[in-house]
Amino acid sequence: MRLEEAIKTNRFEDEKHKASLNLLYTTYWLKNQISKEMKSNGLTFEQFNIMRILRGSHPEQMCIKDIADRMIEKSSNVPRIIDRLIVKKLVKRTTSKVDKRETLVSLSYKGMLTLEDASKLTHHLTSDIIGLSEVEAITLNELLEKMRSRPEAIIAGQAE
């Protein structure tokens, strides 16, 4: 679906304005598609993201601050999301032996199995839904990374 149809307007300041809106719209659209798939595993998008982060360090444990730093969508909700994963027995929480103030989190065996199933669904979904060739995906990745690599002063409107 074209952006104009989705947001019911064709009035944009310029192509860069349209591109930024298109990027935002597409981001939420993709997140919603993935979230629908995650529901079949009883997970939210954020829970799935935390579990993926924990899998990256498995079998090592991670502190909550490090998990929060790696989140796709930054959130101060990380401790509450982890609490929900603990209730579901998908992660385990322990206290650091080095620093008793630090809480460490790791995937449980059930969490690993759940994450494996959810990852298969997500991989299948993204392969089908993205609809880009490998070359197109490389180009899109390069453009997105170029966009994010701009100096902070320019992004904040302090230069140019």
Describe the structure using short key phrases.
single chain; 160 residues; mainly alpha; Arc Repressor Mutant, subunit A; 3 strands
Output the CATH class name: Mainly Alpha
Radius of gyration: 19 Å
Global morphology: globular
Derived from helix and strand composition plus strand pairing, the structural class reads mainly alpha
H/I helix tally: 8
- As laid out across the biggest beta sheet, the strand order is 1-3-2
CATH superfamily: Winged helix-like DNA-binding domain superfamily/Winged helix DNA-binding domain
Q: Report the sheet with the most strands, covering strand number, pairing sense and barrel closure.
A: 3 strands, antiparallel
CATH architecture descriptor text: Orthogonal Bundle
* Mean residue pLDDT: 89
Straight-line distance between termini: 34 Å
SSE topology string = HHHEHHEEHHH
Number of strands: 3
Strand content: 5-15%
Low-pLDDT regions: none
Q: What do we call the CATH topology? A: Arc Repressor Mutant, subunit A
* Tally of discrete structural domains: 1
Percentage of residues in helical conformation: 55-70%
Would you give an account of this structure?
The chain has 160 residues and is mostly helical. Helix content is 63%, strand content 8%. The chain has a single domain, classed as Winged helix-like DNA-binding domain superfamily/Winged helix DNA-binding domain (Arc Repressor Mutant, subunit A). It is built from 8 helices and 3 strands; from the N terminus they run H-H-H-E-H-H-E-E-H-H-H. It starts with a helix and ends in a 5-residue tail after the last helix.
